[in-house]
Amino acid sequence: MAEITLRIDGMHCGACVRRVSQALGSAQGLAVKEVRIGAARIESDQQSAATLAVEALAKAGYKAHPEADLEEVHANN
């Protein structure tokens, strides 16, 4: 299983953590490892796991980015 770290915009409190946990937990094929304000760690054996997670969080009202994508942006600047 691959582990993915997501950076999540718009999280401010414990209710946000619960909402993000529920959104990720309802996405098929994702295992939620940790959720904290501003970030989450998931595991999945699906290649499209990051996309599934980002879409699930968008439906819950949050904008998310896989950490690897952010590292690539910073490396290219």
The rounded Rg comes to 12 Å
- Percent helix, as a range, is 40-55%
Query: What's the β-strand tally?
Result: 4
Gross morphology? globular
Count the DSSP helices: 3
Give the DSSP E fraction (strand runs of 2 or more residues). Answer: 25-35%
Mean pLDDT: 90
Class per helix and strand makeup: alpha+beta
* Strand adjacency order, main sheet: 2-3-1-4
Low-confidence stretches: 70-74
User: How does the major sheet shape up?
Assistant: 4 strands, antiparallel
Give the N-terminus to C-terminus distance in angstroms: 31 Å
- Quaternary state reads single chain
Order of helices and strands: EHEEHEH
Structure description:
44% of the residues lie in helices and 31% in strands. It has 3 helices and 4 strands; from the N terminus they run βαββαβα. The protein has helices at 14-26, 49-59, 67-76; strands at residues 2-9, 31-36, 39-44, 63-66. A 4-stranded antiparallel sheet has the order 2-3-1-4. It starts with a strand and ends with a helix.
Summarize the structure.
This protein has 77 residues and is α+β, with helices and mostly antiparallel strands. The chain contains three helices and four strands, in the order βαββαβα.
